[in-house]
Amino acid sequence: MALTLPYLLVPSLNVARVARVAPPVMQMAPIAAVGRAAHVTGGIVPARAPPITDSSILVQGGSLRTWSYRSPAVEQVQVVLSTDGRPLDADIELWHGPDNTPCKMRVYVENGQLRPFSAVIETPRGPNTVAVRNIGQIEFPISANVVADMVDQPSNDCLSSLTTIQGGALRTYPFDPNVESVQVLLKTDGRPLNARIELLQGPNNNKQVIELYTEDGLDRPFFCFLVTPGSGNVVRVVNTAPVEFPMSASVVPHTMRTDAEGDVVVGGETGW
């Protein structure tokens, strides 16, 4: 037993001696220095920097996103939809209580980057929820944003230009090429509002279509902006309700083009 004791103690002493060795320490350079060195010497850097984004949410094709507002102080929200140049096809609904949809619309835009959609939805007597569903294919995502502060309001010119459109009738509003965007305001005297808003550029060439339903056009009027680049833009408003449900509509210019460039006029008179 006395001979075996040293052989048993030697391994334990070696283990204790190895444990007292300081572990290796890997020193990392500051992130800024690594970025500069990688830029100069060709080191490894991230594929792309994090993009600076706003509060918009990317809604993939076939998916649904909701924005809820519990406070009754929120009486209006603004919905802004856009794409990266692809078509935009979406359903927008306002949920107020269980199985109650007082406002809903179907929006189609040929080019969501050239003509983004912006509309104001009335949300009195909260809580309310705004639902945006991308009904397009998965290859056509949309960028959606719903804000409750700094909501755009119709101008005095828009409020004073309301005209009556009887049920089943339509009215067209042509605009000059220097008009960049227009305001559209629809309301009723308290009856339901059913309308179709079209932005045309050429014969039967729909660039943007909005199919709208509101259960009370006085309590929940509809207000939106339509971007009208180029020439030959015409806004057509159709009252799709029966003749017993007239509505008031106003379509006026919002922003004007300030540059001196214009469309080419062939055959125009010159100062000979």
- How many strand units? 16
> What is the N-to-C order of secondary-structure elements (H for helix, E for strand)?
HHEEEEEEEEHEEEEEEEE
CATH class categorisation of the largest domain: Mainly Beta
Form type: globular
Q: What is the overall pLDDT average?
A: 81
Number of helix segments? 3
Taken together, the total number of domains comes to 2
> Remind me, CATH topology of the largest domain?
Jelly Rolls
Tell me what the structure shows.
- The protein is mostly beta strands.
- It has two domains: 54-152, Jelly Rolls (Sandwich); 154-255, Jelly Rolls (Sandwich), CATH 2.60.120.680.
- The protein is 11% helix and 40% strand.
- The protein contains three helices and 16 strands.
- The protein has helices at residues 4-19, 31-41, 156-159, and strands at 57-59, 64-69, 76-82, 88-95, 103-109, 117-122, 128-134, 142-147, 163-165, 170-174, 179-187, 193-201, 206-214, 222-227, 233-239, 247-256.
- The strands form two sheets. The chain has an eight-stranded antiparallel β-sheet with strand order 1-8-3-6-14-11-16-9. Strands 2-7-4-5-13-12-15-10 form an eight-stranded antiparallel β-sheet, with no helix packed on it.
- A hairpin with a 7-residue loop joins strand 4 and strand 5 (103-109).
- The longest helix is centred in the first third of the chain and has 16 residues, at 4-19.
- Pfam families: DiatomPyrShell.
- InterPro entries: DiatomPyrShell.
